[in-house]
Hints:
The chain is an alpha+beta fold.
Amino acid sequence: MCIRDRYAPLALSFPYVYEPWNIQRLLKQQGWTMLFHEPTSGREQPGFYVAADARSKEAVLAVRGTKHVMDVFTNANALPECFQVPLTHKAVEQNSPDANTEGEWLIGMAHGGMASAALWLELEVGSVLAELHHAGFSITLVGHSLGAGVASLLALRLSALIPSIRCVSYAAPACMDCRLAEASRACVDAIILHDDIVPRASARNVLELFQDLSRYSKQWPDLFKQDLRAVTGRMKRLWEPPRRGAKRRVLEEAELELDREISFKQWRMWTALKKSVSKPGEEELQAISLEEEGEKGEVAVEEGEVAVEEGTEPVDVDEMDAVVDEMDAVVDEMDAVVDEMDAVVDAAVDEMGAGPEREAPLTPNTRRAVEIAIARAEADQAGHLGPHERHRLSLTTLYTPGSIVHLYQHHGVMRGAEISCDHPTLTRIEPYANMVKDHLSSGMWTALKSVTASMAASKPPPTWQRFCDAPVCACCNSDFTWASTSSGDAQQMLDRRNCPSCGLVVCDGCSQHTRPLHSIGIVEPVRVCDGCHFSTDWLKEMLDDQQHSDATAPCASVHLHESPL
């Protein structure tokens, strides 16, 4: 991890500085000398610079990520294209015997825009890097986001010319198929932060995300009604300021109002059911007229009666219960009929499957689908696919290249683990709030420092309390949503948080103070609960923080420039 920290500012910060003299100044502070720099971007021509360190005999090519409009066009050319990589001994060992090879080239599919950019960079700086290699310099390619994908593809192209070439990529997108991704493990080290969406943004993952959102669309109306009811209730109280403990009274009033609304709906349902069970008579016609006029009145529930205001006659609850009993009997009869039908269907299925040569008949649509599938398979083998079919088959699943290190949080502390390109955490897009923030260069740089600090931490982090085990805030013993207008299920999850110092679940109002926790490996200020912030052990914690701050002071002096994406 220390070697990756050395290249982190070269890829995450310096390429986004536009002025060449400013990059020279920053590189000089880290012991590097800039050889040349291309600040402007073209279509499929990203910005880059080349720097060298004469003392350690190292040369670095840093490729910039998305910063200009032309870089967006490079990202937009996402259709996979054929990409040829010269075979080396390492690449041959990494690939299976049935890999698609032709002569001394490994043939695969890669992101169209990034593949074209890699070929352009090979023409621009390939000979320069080869001369530096022959002069005894070790060659390393670095990049972030778009630059990480281009640098990884370029490293594969130059692996035969420079066998010792290395590439360190940060937040690399899915840009090559499984064959090239497996071959890139020999020369590419990739780092992915937490829930970064870019390495997971393949066509298959995006389609599954839309399917998940469509399933969630059946749940959000109920959550929206909860929030709307809470806003309406607070408006009736003239937007009363929130207070700890006052939320319970508001919740009781909301539950009472909800019960009244349910009683009104039950009255309407029972009236309609009574109409369907018995013959229409004088009382039923009166109930129907009450149902039509029920929208204008309000329901009052008291002393066993349900009445509609504005002068209408009350309806007896006992009569409603009798109607419900009649409907229950009807439902039981329907269930019995359904059970009989299921028994008949099961017997028919068993009879069809009893004969050894009998098969279930195919419907016309199923038979037609089977015929189309067989025809397409035969056309594929014969090479007679049409242009639309070939275009659809060209949408190959792409993966993140290299040997991947995934940075994740465990009990508030950043950790790292090596995973494969098809690991389940990379084959699914989880819609978290930090999915875009984790892709920014500043977040990646902070995470790298946190991983290094956690490895040198003096004590492990505390075990976090589960949300289900915390009915109220551990600090104020109040409901978690006391400061929020809504008290719905979604708001309950949003207003809970674990204190990284003690691990307890606290509310938003009791966790407004921030401080770093160097003793457990958290170098950036994080929100802690009031109990930990005003703890009597603050002097010992301050001494531990000072000790670890002195150990990580050189890393904190590097200035970062924010990347748009």
